[in-house]
Amino acid sequence: MVSDFPKGPQADAAGWLARLRADDRTQADIDAFHRWLDADPRHGEHFERLSTIFDDVGGLKESIRRPEKAGQPNLTRRSVLAGACVLAVSASGLIAWDDAQARIYQTAIGEQKRVTLSDGSVLLLDTATRLEECFDADDRLLKLCHGRINCVVPRGQRPFVVEVGNEMLRTEAGRFDIRHEGDVSAYIAQEGRAVIRSEDTAQHVKIASGERVREEKGHFLRDRPEVMEATAWQSGRAVFRNDTLREALGEMNRYSMQSIQLADPAMADLRISGIYRVGDNRAFAKALANILPVKARITDGNILLLSA
Q1: pTM of the model
Q2: What's the confidence (pLDDT) of residue 300?
Q3: Is 169 helix (H, G, I), strand (E, B) or coil?
Q4: pLDDT tens for residues 215-237?
């Protein structure tokens, strides 16, 4: 639940965005909104700035103008991504979710799960992933709290938006691999196009089929990975190509309660290549002992690698 939402002109602007978008708005609401605009020139600036924040993630822009007097005002400015799941929007433009209302999907360590959403989108959740869904009349909204997902998104009447930390991916259709671990995020477009926007820096970048975008130190980095290797997790495998043992263990340990640890930190720089099935660290440790100068020992339920 949202608590201690900031007060002041920015919060008031967010409230007006939500109120003007509500189905039960009245002419009295419209009149009160214009009185609020007239009370301080800065009010209009806050309202316009907050509206502009949403432009790149859903086409929210509309000029501020007084409605015609005759008939119901035709106010179509998008609000704070209105819906039962959303309570408010901060001045940065990030969605404030009501977790009690959002539909939650999650996986345990070593588990993968396939989910079909109401719009026909098919999601594959990787190990240790938490995802929240809130579809409303305007958007198909997801929040990737942590972990990794693959989204197959059919074309629909509403944009498909995924919040990933302080970033948002927006697309109309396609297939996308999205990862969010701590402060690190990465996006792969297997099919289709999308726009990714950082709410911290207001930067945005477009991504197309075969491309990967990663956020690092406030900047978006783009490359073209071997997509089949980068998405091998979808078939329960991990692919390493001259990766360090540290990197390989970091990936394999995500899938098992029985972690592999190093007795000597100097071993972390050993290199490994190959394709391995995830979720069976004993088998992986045995394979390591066959190709690297290491030996495995079971200790306290985990696996310790020692120099051979």
Answers
A1: 0.69
A2: 83
A3: strand
A4: 887 789 999 999 999 999 999 99
Cα distance between residue 17 and residue 79, in whole Å: 4
Residue 105 CB-density burial (10 A; 0-12 exposed, 13-18 middle, 19+ buried):
middle
**Whose structure tokens read 């310790």?**
304
Q: What is the CATH number of the domain that holds 244?
A: 3.55.50.30
d(CA 276, CA 39): 65
In a domain, 276, yes or no: yes
Domain match, 220 and 112 both: yes
Structural domain of residue 191, as residue ranges?
103-229
Residue 179 pairs in a beta bridge with 148, 186
Question: Does the residue 1 lie in any domain?
Answer: no
Report how far residue 11's alpha carbon sits from residue 47's, in angstroms, rounded to the nearest whole number: 10
- What's the token pair of residue 287? 């394979």
Query: Is residue 200 one of the residues assigned to a domain?
Result: yes
How far is the C-alpha of 125 from the C-alpha of 146, rounded, in Å?
10
* 281 contact partners, CB below 8 Å, separation of at least 6: 252, 253, 255, 256, 258, 259, 260, 303
Q: CA-based Rg of the chain, rounded to a whole angstrom?
A: 24
